[in-house]
């Protein structure tokens, strides 16, 4: 009898041990659609180490993030140098980020397999803006979100930064903008971001219109500069036009 009970308990604890392993990690494909090089990065608040990768224009990088990960962020670093000066936006101090980047940086945020086995995801301008982002599920049948606008060019003077647009909390550090004293309301600065990116967080308590869900186990695609239009150039032949990697033959007929 003791042997039988012990065997049942062993199987039970083995089941509990293997249960988390049965939940698949989420796959994230990160694509650089910008016309310039970015240094992609990701980090979570969980035990899984983050990482980073240089992505030239048109390159992609695929990562697997553990089920149950919380506080996840994916972002682009820009203006990076190899001489120890770091990056102008999104810098974390090293290529393989182990923590969050420095403002300003547009964030693709996520927490996986949370309440009711749902993934929660969003785009955030709470840490400012440096490049546009499209954050779209590739499975799961739920909608994607996007933030792509001329925010750097139109940035209010008080928030301007090299290659980016700061958030007001970083610049002023007051409870009004940082929401550190309980409930807070939108400000003129947050409305500037919200008008241009309705899907994205514009201030720390902008949850109602800015948090989205997908079933746990969904995979995602994060695209930097989703609205970038490839440069149009003329080939060696006068009737050949190159649009990105696409070559078009143009024929012009003159009426008699």
From TrEMBL:
<feature type="signal peptide">
    <location>
        <begin position="1"/>
        <end position="25"/>
    </location>
</feature>
<keyword id="KW-0776">Taste-modifying protein</keyword>
<dbReference type="Pfam" id="PF00314">
    <property type="entry name" value="Thaumatin"/>
</dbReference>
<comment type="similarity">
    <text>Belongs to the thaumatin family.</text>
</comment>
<dbReference type="InterPro" id="IPR001938">
    <property type="entry name" value="Thaumatin"/>
</dbReference>
<dbReference type="GO" id="GO:0031410">
    <property type="term" value="C:cytoplasmic vesicle"/>
</dbReference>
<keyword id="KW-0732">Signal</keyword>
<comment type="function">
    <text>Taste-modifying protein; intensely sweet-tasting. It is 100000 times sweeter than sucrose on a molar basis.</text>
</comment>
<keyword id="KW-1015">Disulfide bond</keyword>
<keyword id="KW-0968">Cytoplasmic vesicle</keyword>
<protein>
    <recommendedName>
        <fullName>Thaumatin-like protein</fullName>
    </recommendedName>
</protein>
């Amino acid at each position: 009898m003791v042997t039988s009970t012990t065997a049942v308990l062993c199987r039970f604890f083995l089941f509990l041990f293997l249960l988390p392993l049965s939940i698949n990690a989420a796959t994230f494909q990160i694509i650089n659609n910008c016309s310039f090089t970015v240094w992609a990065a990701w980090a979570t608040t969980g035990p899984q180490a983050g990482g980073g990768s240089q992505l030239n224009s048109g390159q992609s990088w695929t990562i697997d993030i553990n089920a149950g990960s919380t506080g996840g962020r994916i972002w682009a670093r820009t203006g990076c140098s190899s001489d120890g000066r770091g990056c102008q936006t999104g810098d974390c101090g090293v290529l393989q980020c182990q923590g969050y980047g420095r403002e300003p940086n547009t964030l693709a945020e996520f927490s996986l397999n949370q309440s009711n086995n749902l993934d929660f995801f969003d785009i955030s301008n709470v840490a400012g803006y440096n490049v546009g982002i499209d954050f779209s599920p590739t499975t799961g049948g739920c909608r994607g979100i996007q933030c792509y606008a001329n925010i750097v060019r139109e940035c209010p003077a008080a928030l301007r930064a090299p290659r980016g647009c700061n958030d007001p909390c970083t610049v002023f550090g007051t409870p009004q903008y940082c929401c550190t004293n309980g409930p807070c309301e939108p400000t003129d600065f947050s409305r500037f971001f919200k008008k241009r990116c309705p899907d994205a967080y514009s201030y720390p308590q902008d949850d109602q219109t800015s948090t989205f869900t997908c079933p746990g186990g969904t995979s995602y695609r994060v695209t930097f500069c989703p609205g970038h239009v490839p440069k149009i150039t003329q080939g060696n032949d006068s009737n050949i036009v190159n649009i990105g990697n696409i070559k078009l033959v143009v024929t012009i007929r003159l009426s008699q």
